[in-house]
Amino acid sequence: MALSAAPAASPQTARRLVVAMHDVSKVFSNGTLALKGMSLDVKAGEFISLLGPSGCGKSTALRIIAGLGAPSSGSIDWPSSRINSKGLPEGDVGFVFQDPTLMPWATVFDNVFLPLKLRGISKASATETIMENLASVGLADFAASYPRELSGGMRMRVSIARAMVTKPKLLLMDEPFAALDEITRQKLNDDVLRLWKQHGVTVIFVTHSVYESAYLSSRIVVMRARPGQVYTDMAVTQPAERDQAYRVSEGYRQTCQDVSDALQGAIGAAEVH
Ligand SMILES: Nc1ncnc2c1ncn2[C@@H]1O[C@H](COP(=O)(O)OP(=O)(O)OP(=O)(O)O)[C@@H](O)[C@H]1O
Known about the structure:
- By secondary structure, the chain is α/β, with parallel strands linked by helices.
- It has 8 helices and 10 strands.
- The chain has helices at 58-66, 108-118, 123-136, 152-164, 182-199, 210-216, 244-247, 250-269; strands at 3-5, 17-27, 33-43, 47-51, 73-77, 93-96, 170-174, 202-207, 219-224, 229-236.
- The strands form 2 sheets. A 7-stranded mixed β-sheet has the order 1-10-9-4-8-7-6, sandwiched between helices.
- The protein is globular, with a radius of gyration of 19 Å.
- The protein binds adenosine-5'-triphosphate.
- Adenosine-5'-triphosphate is lined by residues 28, 30, 32, 34, 52, 54-60, 208, 228.
- This is ABC transporter ATP-binding protein.
- Belongs to the ABC transporter superfamily.
- GO terms for molecular function: ATP binding; ATP hydrolysis activity.
- Keywords: ATP-binding, Nucleotide-binding, Transport.
């Protein structure tokens, strides 16, 4: 069995807690209850996919973790980070959106430089780090290019390099590959897995895709809508190596089936108003 309910004593249990959501609810000013009592413990080294029906609050949860929105009630704890005056872990979080959000007037190099520039680091002392990060996403030869000269997949790679350039502990990715074609998406899935392993970064990845979540994750958190909260939390225990052989394996097929069943359950659990 490739998939199981996240066990109480999984190998991750012994790991450091990176961030914990405690009983978080979010009501927007128009009265929409986006999240109700959502709790989630994220441990170092996990690759967590947040999966769920449209509108179940995946992006809201991710944005609250990133400090881009405050919870209406409940709390976010960063047990192993230094917290700034806004209650956020300074520099420990990278964010990748579905839209790469690059500055069109700036080169690839300058786009990746931005987070370091905002920290007061000079271009000269940042150059080596920037080039390393561009190389790690296969774009070392495109440092002088402008975003308009790149494909959609390459622009997303720049966005990932920009998020990783500050060496975050936690990488938050909100449907980053949803707009890309399937082959590009699969290549980027492999790139993200490589970065995850190389840098030991913890990842929370929002996706609509059962297949993508089953390929990438060490843990899949399926959310339900109305109200948005965790429906089920599953560990994907097999295999350690995710590659083309895994994509056509019985283990992958079974994982996709189990995740798909959980998603159907989550959709069925939504309260109809
Ligand atoms: N700024 C906002 N103001 C009011 N309502 C909002 C706001 N942002 C999100 N919502 C609502 O909150 C609910 C959760 O939205 P959210 O975008 O978090 O869901 P999601 O699971 O990420 O959706 P999708 O999969 O379609 O991207 C939805 O009903 C949405 O319409």
